[in-house]
Amino acid sequence: MLKPIPLKNIRIHDAFFSGRIETARRVAIPYMLDALNDRIPGVPRSGCIANFEIAAGRKKGSFTGFVFQDSDLWKWIEGAAYSLAGHPDPELEKEIDRAIELAGEAQLPDGYLDTYYIINGIEKRFTNLKDHHEMYVAGHMFEAACAYYEVTGKRALLEIACRFADCIDAHFGPEEGKRRGYPGHEEIELGLARLAADTGEPRYLKLAAFFLDERGKQPYYFDREAEERGEKAPGERKNQFQTYSYYQADRPVREQTAAVGHAVRQGYLLAGMAEVGGQTGDAGMTDAARRIWENIVSRQMYITGGVGSTHEGEAYSFDYDLPPERCYTETCAAISLAMTSVRLGRIAPHGKYGDIVERTLYNGILSGVSLDGTRYFYMNPLEVWPERCEKRQDLRIDAERQGWFGCACCPPNVLRTLTGLGNYLFETDGDTLYVDQYVSCSAEAELESGRLSFEVESRMPWEGLAEIRILRPAAGCRIRLRIPSWAGERRLLVNGRETECEEKDGYITLEGPFREGDVIRLELPMQVKLMHAAMHTPNYAGRRAVMKGPLVYCLEEADNGKELWNLSLEDGPAEVEHRADLLNGVDVIRLRGQRETTDEALYAEGEVSREPAELTLVPYYAWGNRGKGEMAVWIRKA
Amino acid sequence: MLKPIPLKNIRIHDAFFSGRIETARRVAIPYMLDALNDRIPGVPRSGCIANFEIAAGRKKGSFTGFVFQDSDLWKWIEGAAYSLAGHPDPELEKEIDRAIELAGEAQLPDGYLDTYYIINGIEKRFTNLKDHHEMYVAGHMFEAACAYYEVTGKRALLEIACRFADCIDAHFGPEEGKRRGYPGHEEIELGLARLAADTGEPRYLKLAAFFLDERGKQPYYFDREAEERGEKAPGERKNQFQTYSYYQADRPVREQTAAVGHAVRQGYLLAGMAEVGGQTGDAGMTDAARRIWENIVSRQMYITGGVGSTHEGEAYSFDYDLPPERCYTETCAAISLAMTSVRLGRIAPHGKYGDIVERTLYNGILSGVSLDGTRYFYMNPLEVWPERCEKRQDLRIDAERQGWFGCACCPPNVLRTLTGLGNYLFETDGDTLYVDQYVSCSAEAELESGRLSFEVESRMPWEGLAEIRILRPAAGCRIRLRIPSWAGERRLLVNGRETECEEKDGYITLEGPFREGDVIRLELPMQVKLMHAAMHTPNYAGRRAVMKGPLVYCLEEADNGKELWNLSLEDGPAEVEHRADLLNGVDVIRLRGQRETTDEALYAEGEVSREPAELTLVPYYAWGNRGKGEMAVWIRKA
Lengths: 638, 638
What we know:
Largest interface: A-B, 53 and 53 residues
Number of strands of chain A: 24
Helix content of chain A: 25-40%
Structural class of chain A: alpha+beta
Low-confidence stretches of chain A: none
Strand content of chain A: 15-25%
Largest sheet of chain A: 7 strands, antiparallel
Radius of gyration of chain A: 25 Å
Distance between the termini of chain A: 49 Å
Oligomer: homodimer
Number of helices of chain A: 17
Shape of chain A: globular
Mean pLDDT of chain A: 95
């Protein structure tokens, strides 16, 4: 299995991403800490830190928030920890240490640590794995512990995590006397596998594999625990939230073939399957994960990389059902797709995994946070008519980003993705360096034949140009560069000399040896493309989405006026202009089009008037940063 | 105010409607009676007659169904009564008399008659006007009583109705000691006004006017009754079903300007306002009704005459929000729009009212029932992808008509509309006969100067041809013929001689005198028209709906294969063929078009393949009679 370059060995200085990461560091990290501490007036009360204080006995009070409220702290720590890798910050580290100390105080002697049950009655713990998210919370704790340990080398949270993992391991597993349960919301599988990798403790990996393979076995564990609580078994209920497919537990994961149910759960399950399967070398497990992933990216993914077509259950619906306005496309779900993709790429490298990481990162994930880093989308629709969002009770789409959410899963998830961006860029395998995403940075990779130091200078996403400069070669090093699916004719230059390289599995390979100062230059002409969707998707016939490189573009009311639906695209040249003053600097695309107008009659015969119109498009990730207004990704072709 | 020709004076023999009416008489009337008597295996149990039997003390048991279950009987009686006008049937009359006898037995000494409260505890009656539908049920009873009395002259049900009306009048009104309540679901206003007209009792009209004008006054009655029940006032709740606009009670009806809330309630309110305003000559009331009606037909009505854009609250949403797939467009709501339109036309005659009656009748109402008369749509969407209906939990659209509903409001409503079709055809005013709908029939109208007998022979909706033959003239008679909005160049011939007639307010007027045997022939060329929607509606830009005369057409999978969204319309001549063998005989329209195909990639660049395709369209009312399949009214223009 390939391994990522550790985050602490990467320093990002990217024209596109560094500003966003810096905003995350300077704005989102303190903002979220304030939110977790209930110090921001006017946003829904989190109660997250207060819950830990109550659980630790530091103060009196009752539990606030969702059963998974603790996870907001863990995700914040994970995100903050990654930030330290790129930007040491002793004050922030102290804040994290204080939170870890508090968590340690709240932890029970047997290792249990979930403030919901510590406060509300420990006797009920582990009685509702289906809905009460203890395992999900634990998974995020384990990820946070690994992140903080990997970046700082500090073990305090790692030890807290191990104690909780040991506690869970003592209660669950195939062994006599243990319960054969599994979580209703996946995440612990990935967390345990990361913990196993960082601690070398094989029990954690075994437990993760157990949780994965136990899902969907009959008789259903969720039935059993419900009966033990004296409740009706969920399988008897009609509500889809109560059916097993919502939890990806209607059948064993190895038998599942398509993405179903809650999209974030599905994504975390897949990431866990890929991580566990990768570590254990279990081909059956990784094949199953790849099969479901293929279903997603070929039939259930929006062009932005968003997934989850329906708000009912925040879920996948079915193949080719991808309505652009009425989607859920939760930011967390896009993140989970990136997390899965990067892991599948580590098992059997192929450019297609990096393509999806790129698609989600530049579009459906980045759209989740405002340019100023303080406001978030939970849902990322591809078409917004604000009046409908506000007046149709059945739409459940926010027309504008919100400051915080009662269910605050997305903000810290975006945070950990941005500050942990380095996790998605490179992989190593023996003496091979894989360059998956072209983000300007300097990095050091430990290869079989020694340490390789290099720099990447990239102009993406605005220009298809990246240079890799070898600072310190490793003797046996070879380099594989991912060729993005949007790239047409490519040029590869090594020290200025054009070099032919065959593409295989989405990569071109440069065999070494390399010398200090070698420069590998990749030129990928970046053209404006009009994309169509597969004929089986009902909402896109006759429409096009505009892309340039990895970026999906959109029409906004701010540039094109109201009633975007009356605009259509004509054939003609695209004009691209870089506007440094706009939306923190974007390439704007202008296309020739038409605007239709009719008289006021609701229904009428006769010709519709058409006037030439210049369509102005901005990157989708940047939409909604200029006040409330209409937005559309898919545009009618005139 | 204009008056309709009484139903008993009309005999319909129309090539288009008589078959549907006969199916209603022979199939739907006995089917529904069986359903009300719980004699049909496999359909949801009604319990309607059983409730009356329990209330009458004939048997023991508990109440079954909704709080408004009684209304199914009343609507069935209304529909069956109208049927007797066109087709005397002693056996059916006996069935109705038996039901009336049963209802009389169930009626309490003080006149109260609602089996829900008689069975469940009379002390709670009139304590929840907002949600418990007693007034709605009473309104349907009054309409049934009037219908049966008007057709048969029998007074038994009329007297039961008067006793209940007196009971309600004793409890509600502006007078000291009475309650200032009004119903959460309107209908009683129309029922009381009809009862006033048939009995000459002015108290009923006064009570109806009271109910209308009391709506929306502050402090809100719904708050007061909720507080009296010890509950939270609905105004404090967030759920839209609990807000006052859902009930058209957020402000006084005279101040309302747009259709809001539950669509059927809105429609019955408007019909009541028009009926009461028309009878009392209250211009303020009728102006308000007309204003709301204008809002509907100019901004909130589907091209089929369906209304109600959202399933949330079965409600109107807002101006120009008319999504074709995700609509509610309840059959009952379209009926209520026809009921309102015909009444507004009686107050200030204008062809536009008959246009809406025609649009709803031939499209959004008739689509509610299968050609064989046994299956019903509650919702009448303009676009159906069955897989989405079945798999997307948030869509809530049936892809196929159902045999019966737990909430069985639509089937008897369609029944009473079809058997009562004569109510929508003609109006009289002094010596003027208004011909609003061209349906073949013979009729007698009582004009100021005597009785006018005439026949109508119409080829509509397939040909724009109607002849009116005078059988027995009335001395001072003049005739006004509605010119439908779809008509282009018209020809009017009187006894074969072309006659010029100016159109005014949607009518042409023929001054008499007429002689026996005079034939007035109206020729309205009927062309296939491609209709577009107002630019303010977001879902229709670049699309067209095909109409011919009053009929809206649609694509069905049965004729055009799957994935209708890949079809688009080209310019070119329309081919019309009458197919006597298809769908009980329809004109099929064929148009030149294209089918787009793409390869299997979910998103791809490049040209989309186009192949010529012949589009075959059938009338919308007849869709869904050939098994489950896709349907679309609005088609992309290539």
